[in-house]
Amino acid sequence: MRPTDNAVAQWHAQKQLRHSPSWRLMQAAPWSVAFLRAEFTPARQRVPLEEFHADLAAFMKELREENLSLNESWQASNYADSWVRSQFLARPMVDGRFVYEPTAASTRVLAFLDSVTVERTNLNSSRLSTLLTSIESLSFQTDPNPDRRIAVLEAEIVERQAEIETLRNGRNPAVLSDNSALAATRSVLDLASSLPADFKRMRDGVEAMLHTIRQEIMESSVTKGVAVGQVLEGDKALRNTAEGETFQGFTEFLNDPARQARFRQAVNEVLERGFTDQLSSGERGTLATLVREMRRQAADVHAIYGRLSESLHSYVMSDEFRESILLRKAIHAAEQAVARAPLGPRTPVVAPLLYAPNFETLAGLGIFDPEDHVPPPPLAAPPALSGADIHRTPATPSADMPAVHAAVALARSTRNGTATLADAYAELPAGLRHLNTIRGLILAARATDQAVDTARTQTLRFTQIDGTERTARLPLVTFTKDTAP
């Protein structure tokens, strides 16, 4: 291998990265990245569409107050649509509602930005202890020599027995300091922060495979016999990736109630310790909902696998699959017959007859002659319309608010300062007693905070534009204040 081969491979990978959504997100406007980092947390990976738009609109309002140059013609929904087109966000439908969630690439970028913007070192005793434990566990599990593994287990038993005897003798166990405990907790959160991106990439891979099988099986006319095998091979390759192994390991964890109970108990006990008060509310929420969030993401992958299984089942039960099986059997039988046939003189093959016309001259084709064409009769002329035929559609006029206020004032003056909505309506002339006038009286009552008794009602008669009368039943509204503006 030449020394430059690795550099060339890295160069090609870098060129692909520059065209990926991850690179575009890192080059996006800082305020948009800041909003995505604040909106999506490890414990909150999905936000309802309406809530996301409202949060973004409030944030944009603050940005405009700080004189940040934004597209004045764009609203929050326009920016959200552009982020979906740029593959920063996904907008799936969950339980009948659209939600926003970061894509796998965005999840990795946001986690990377969180790690580089927080001034906190990852080099601590907890991280080193985890590293040492992982190396020792790897060395033990890959050792094929049973004698050495037995020696390791016996040494661990002796160490554990010594710790038990020390505790039985009344000595207090060594407890981590608050700083070390905080560092250990954040190390756990750092390890968990990479899981959502792995689940999303696993889900995207299964969705791509589902899209492929639907295209090749349900729509195209490719060879049907190998389609299922291709899907199974693709699924096997997907499960062998790092994301697939993560998903498989977590699925095994979800199927083990004892391990789940131990994990939940450990999380609850850690959250009861005093040092957790120094964690942020987001960190405590992430730790408390860690298993629930990962179960939800694993359920998404299982749901997509369910749709893939349904597609395969529909295909296997279809007539096309049965025809492909019969075709493969016929081809296999023909191949076996050819293989068993003795070698001898070849049978001449008759040349195929590609076409056999039943006519002797071109006149039999019935060539089109323009002179034989008879044009269709012209369409009838449209009817003539006069000015009297064109009229305006009648409509109920708007409420005459000055007349409404005058009617209220007149009704109150003749009734000792107190009048109902029906009394004011009765003071209006007949030409104004229509539906929009009733609406105007209600609006005047609301604008001046008049008394409304919903337990009692009053009845009004009004005339429609066709001359018929209708009855309106309203809550009892009493005018005790001036309504004129």
**Principal-axis shape:** flat
Instruction: Give the percentage of residues in beta strands.
Output: 5-15%
Number of strands: 7
Measured distance between first and last alpha carbons? 89 Å
Order of helices and strands: HHHEHHEEEHHHHHHHHHHHHEHHEE
Keywords, separated by commas or semicolons:
3-stranded antiparallel sheet, flat, single chain, 7 strands, about 475 residues
Describe this structure in words.
By secondary structure, the chain is α+β, with helices and mostly antiparallel strands. The chain is 59% helix and 8% strand. It has helices at residues 3-18, 21-26, 30-39, 49-65, 76-85, 104-117, 125-141, 146-168, 178-193, 195-219, 227-239, 242-254, 257-271, 281-288, 290-316, 319-340, 401-413, 421-426, 435-447; strands spanning 47-48, 89-90, 93-94, 97-102, 419-420, 451-463, 469-479. The strands form two sheets. Strands 1, 2, 3 and 4 form a four-stranded antiparallel beta sheet that branches. Strands 5-7-6 form a three-stranded antiparallel beta sheet. Helix 10 runs antiparallel to helix 11. The termini are far apart. Residues 220-225 have low confidence and may be disordered.
Topology (elements, then pairings):
Blueprint: H1 3-18, H2 21-26, H3 30-39, E1 47-48, H4 49-65, H5 76-85, E2 89-90, E3 93-94, E4 97-102, H6 104-117, H7 125-141, H8 146-168, H9 178-193, H10 195-219, H11 227-239, H12 242-254, H13 257-271, H14 281-288, H15 290-316, H16 319-340, H17 401-413, E5 419-420, H18 421-426, H19 435-447, E6 451-463, E7 469-479
Antiparallel strand pairs: 1-4, 2-4, 3-4, 5-7, 6-7
